[in-house]
Each structure stands twice: as C-alpha cells, then as structure tokens.
C-alpha cells in the first residue's frame, strides 16, 4: 500500500489510513498524552507519509517506518508545546514498564505478511536483550520510548539526578547494542 | 563538522530513535539526516534492528473527519483518475454486461407490472359472422382490453359504447369508445359483473355515448363471457 501510495494511488492511501491510523494514533496518544495533540500529530504524520512515501525503502518494514514518523512528529510537537507532562501526568504514567513492555509491543516471531524472516528474528533478539539489561536501564529505556520522555522528564519521574538517568540510558543502549550485535554475529561492527 | 564522522554517531542516533535526543542536538541530527546520506542510511540500519512492533491493543479510534481533512488539505482529488480509466477492459466489459442484464430484467419486471397478464374472456362477433374483436381481462378485473382483427373506427358523429349485460339484468355501460381497439379501465362498481354467463355488447351511439344511460343504438357486436 505504501508503494502504491508513492505512485500517487489515492485509493491505496485511503486503505493505508483506514488500516494504520488507529495504531498510529495510539502511538501518538502514548507520547502526547493529550487527545487533541495526538490527532494533530496523526494528521501531520499522514501528510508527511503521503509526501515522503517515495523515500520509503521497499525492503523495510512499512509499519516501523510510519511509526518512526509519528514518534518523531509527536516528540517535535511536545518540544514546541513545552508541555510540563511529568507534573500533570505523573500519576497517569505507567509505573510498571516491565509489564508494559509486553503489553505495548508485539514480540511474536510469527512471520507476518509484511515481515521478512530476519525482521522477526531481530525482534526476538531485541526482546531477549531487553530482558538481559539491568532493571533500571530497561525501565528508563521503556519509559522514554513509550511516552517520549526526555532526560529531564525521566529524572523527575524516577526521582533521580539527571546525570544518573543519562548514564542509565547511555549504558542501556550500549548494552542493548552489544547484545544485538552478539546475537546477529555482527561483533566487529562499529562502536 | 559532519555528523557522519562523529565518533558517537550510533549513540546519537540511538537517543534520537529513543526520543531522548532533544533541542539543538535533535535539530542537528535531523539536518544531518537530510543532508548526509551516510547518517540517514545508518539510522535506517539501526531502526531495522531496534524498532519493536506496537501491539494492535494500543490502537485508538481516529477522529471522524480525519480522512476528509487530510484529503482536502492534500488536495487528493486531483490525483484521482476518472472512474472509467480506473476500470480495466475486462472489468469494464463485465460491468457493462451486468448493467445491461440488470436493465433488461428491470424493464421486463416493469413491463409485467405495467401490463398485467390478460386472459381472453369473450369473442365478440356480428350475428352469424366470425369473431372480429377479442376481449381480455386482467386477473384483478381492473383492466379490459379489446383487440380487433382489423381497425373498427367510429365516424365523427358516432361513438361505440361497450356494455356488460349480467344474466337476467339490465345493461351497464363500461366505456364509450372511438375505436374498438385498446385498453380501458373497468369502472369499479362493474368489475364484479364481468363473470361467466354475462354478455358483452357494443352498440352504436351518438357521439359522446348514450344520452339516456341505456343502449339506444343497434348492437353491432356481442359475445358471452366464458
């Protein structure tokens, strides 16, 4: 559908919207935590999907590509709106990122139509490696990813100094990277 | 300095994907993604390895007018090819045949509805001559049709009048006619008289029909209902 959208097929674009808008709105809602902002993000994102569909890599994962657009747009919007989320939504934030890791994401390695086999394998690796991280690192990563929290938001939410949170994030990602590289046998990769 | 050669490029991209890269650093990376193909390629590679799939469970119902707004603002209608160029030849052919079939069936159904099935009930004839007019009646007794073997048209000063004479009763006028060919609606009160044993008769009357309400002129054709 994305490829047909790139060829300016309006019907395919409409199908794409019907099929993916609900999930993408859910992603935007998680980050903006405000329905009207999430709707704006969804609108802007589909505008961008329509305009940039020709730069979509036919061998990539379409949902992942669109999700990245939505996430980036949502984070941009949050930055410009400068919403003090952590204060107002502190209670609403999910305090069990361990559980939400499996509630939010689909780790099944079942080979869906749009997935190449190695994509689903990579996903299995990712879940395994997340499991091997230290709990604080995992919590920081999941909170940041799920809700689009900045370092400052995270520090406030977790009640830890900014430097500590930054270290958790940095170390968490590095460990994740090492683990994934190890799984894929790509140990000699850069960094 | 080009970001492509930054010693912590992966870490920057990682924080960008995670969402914790903010402010100036974020904008700098976004600019690099547009201007430096190596950076964009690196992001694509890492995205492939580190992007989890969201569960359908987090989906929310989009706003009602969302698609319309999008279509309006992107002016999508200009990309929509006219409908006839979107149907392929075979599809168009199938569409055409189906349409013709449906049209035909509808026409047939309409004709059946408009022209009720008529059953011949009487042959009208001059005395001692072969029948020259056939009378046929619809099942609901509302419509009577006269069909003449050859045209029988009244002169300008005369009319034909069709009567039904019930068994043992007086003639009742059914219609005043200019010619003995055509369809007529049976007056409501007379429908029940069109029964077996009654006689249909046609008389010649002054133009406009019998002045008295009873036959005044000669009977030219008659026949009993069978």
Could you tell me the radius of gyration of chain B in angstroms? 43 Å
User: Which spans of chain B have pLDDT < 50 for at least 5 consecutive residues?
Assistant: none
Approximate helicity band of chain B: 25-40%
The major β-sheet of chain B equals: 4 strands, antiparallel
| SS-based class of chain B | alpha+beta
Question: What is the straight-line distance between the termini of chain B?
Answer: 110 Å
Tell me what you see in this structure.
The complex is a heterodimer of chains A (191) and B (226). Chain A is mainly α. Chain A has helices spanning 2-6, 10-32, 35-52, 62-81, 85-89, 97-104, 117-132, 135-147, 151-158, 162-184, and one strand at residues 105-106. By secondary structure, chain B is α+β, with helices and mostly antiparallel strands. Chain B has 6 helices and 9 strands, in the order αααβαααββββββββ. The N and C termini of chain B lie far apart (110 Å).
Short précis:
The complex is a heterodimer of chains A (191) and B (226). Chain A is mainly alpha-helical. Chain A has helices at residues 2-6, 10-32, 35-52, 62-81, 85-89, 97-104, 117-132, 135-147, 151-158, 162-184; one strand spanning 105-106.
Topology:
The complex is a heterodimer of chains A (191) and B (226).
Chain A: H1 2-6, H2 10-32, H3 35-52, H4 62-81, H5 85-89, H6 97-104, E1 105-106, H7 117-132, H8 135-147, H9 151-158, H10 162-184
Chain B: H1 9-18, H2 23-35, H3 37-50, E1 53-54, H4 66-73, H5 83-86, H6 89-114, E2 118-124, E3 133-138, E4 143-148, E5 158-165, E6 172-177, E7 182-185, E8 199-206, E9 219-224
Antiparallel strand pairs in B: 2-3, 3-4, 4-7, 5-6, 5-8, 8-9
């Amino acid at each position: 559908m994305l490829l047909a959208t790139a060829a300016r097929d309006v019907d395919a674009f409409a199908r794409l919207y019907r099929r993916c808008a609900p999930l993408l709105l859910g992603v935007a809602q998680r980050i903006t935590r405000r329905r009207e902002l999430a709707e704006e993000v969804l609108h802007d994102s589909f505008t961008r999907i329509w305009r940039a569909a020709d730069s979509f890599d036919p061998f990539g994962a379409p949902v992942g590509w669109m999700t990245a657009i939505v996430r980036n747009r949502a984070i941009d919007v949050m930055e410009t709106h400068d919403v003090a989320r952590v204060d107002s939504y502190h209670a609403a934030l999910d305090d069990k990122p361990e559980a939400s890791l499996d509630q939010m994401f689909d780790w099944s390695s079942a080979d869906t139509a749009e997935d190449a086999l190695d994509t689903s394998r990579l996903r299995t690796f990712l879940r395994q490696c997340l499991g091997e991280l230290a709990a604080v690192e995992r919590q920081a990563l999941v909170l940041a990813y799920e809700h689009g929290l900045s370092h400052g938001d995270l520090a406030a939410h977790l009640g830890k100094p900014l430097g500590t949170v930054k270290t958790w994030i940095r170390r968490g990602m590095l460990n994740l990277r090492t683990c994934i590289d190890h799984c894929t046998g790509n140990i000699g990769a850069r960094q | 300095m080009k970001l492509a050669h930054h010693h912590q490029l992966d870490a920057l991209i990682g924080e960008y994907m995670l969402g914790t890269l903010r402010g100036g650093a974020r904008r700098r990376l976004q600019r690099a993604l547009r201007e430096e193909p190596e950076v964009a390629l690196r992001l694509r590679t890492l995205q492939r390895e580190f992007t989890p799939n969201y569960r359908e469970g987090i989906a929310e119902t989009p706003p009602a007018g969302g698609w319309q707004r999008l279509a309006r603002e992107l002016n999508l209608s200009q990309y929509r090819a006219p409908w006839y160029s979107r149907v392929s030849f075979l599809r168009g052919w199938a569409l055409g045949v189906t349409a013709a079939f449906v049209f035909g069936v509808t026409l047939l159904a309409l004709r059946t509805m408009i022209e009720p099935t008529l059953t011949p009930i009487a042959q009208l004839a001059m005395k001692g001559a072969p029948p020259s007019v056939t009378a046929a009646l619809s099942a609901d007794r509302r419509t009577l049709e006269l069909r003449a073997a050859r045209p029988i048209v009244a002169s300008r000063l005369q009319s034909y009048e069709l009567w039904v004479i019930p068994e043992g009763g007086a003639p009742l006028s059914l219609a005043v006619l200019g010619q003995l060919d055509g369809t007529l609606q049976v007056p409501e009160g007379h429908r029940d008289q069109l029964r077996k044993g009654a006689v249909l008769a046609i008389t010649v009357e002054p133009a406009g029909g019998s002045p008295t309400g009873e036959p005044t002129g000669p009977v030219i054709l008659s026949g009993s209902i069978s």
